[in-house]
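Structural prep section.
Before we set up the soaks we want a predicted structure of the protein with 2-acetamido-2-deoxy-beta-D-glucopyranose in place, mainly to decide which crystallisation condition to try first. Input record follows.
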Amino acid sequence: MPNPHFFLTFSLLLLLSCHLLNGQEDSEFGHAIERKLLGLKRKEKLSHFKFYWHDILSGRNPTSVSVVPPTLKLNTTTAFGLVNMIDNPLTLGPEMSSKLVGKAQGFYASASQTEIDLLMAMNFAFSDGKYNGSTITILGRNCVFNKVREMPVIGGSGLFRFARGYAEARTHWVDYKSGDATVEYNVYVMHY
Ligand SMILES: *[C@@H]1O[C@H](CO)[C@@H](O)[C@H](O)[C@H]1NC(C)=O
Ligand SMILES: *[C@@H]1O[C@H](CO)[C@@H](O)[C@H](O)[C@H]1NC(C)=O
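Run finished without errors. Recording the tokens verbatim:
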């Protein structure tokens, strides 16, 4: 039987060393603060957003432009190496004429040599109502031919400070000739 006093002493020692470590981490440029100073006393809430993402490559005003062409030396069926910079409109409904709620700004890059997988790195910059000026940041893998693609929400700003969650993307419409596409996004996000 292990001695219960041993555990007590051990726990106390652990507590003490954590304390000392924390003490050491405090410095002129960083220290612990009260959560309530940032309004984090409120309960975290879960929000759901649904909008449509328009990747427009054709026409005179494309919102998605190739900034790095695919590496031609390798198997090109997956466009491995391609990087597109985007400033894609986000609308309430699937039609471009539908209400604009924000822009998806960032880039996507073809990251697979065997299938069409994109690395998505983008900010949803909202411009509507109380979310105007707030952003949600997505970084994830997008296998574009899958019915549903899940990508992590890795953070946010404004109303989305400390955000975490995920986004589900479903292709609504695609023109294989031009590459133009409309994708439905459902975003589930925990924030304060
Ligand atoms: C590229 O790779 C895919 C999957 O591995 C293969 O099916 C295809 O034939 C390859 N294409 C070329 C041009 O090498
Ligand atoms: C969003 O905020 C910007 C800058 O504060 C402002 O110019 C714009 O009119 C706002 N848009 C809406 C739809 O409230």
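Observations: The pocket of 2-acetamido-2-deoxy-beta-D-glucopyranose (ligand 2) is lined by residues 127-128, 132-133 (CB under 6 Å).
Flagged for discussion at group meeting.
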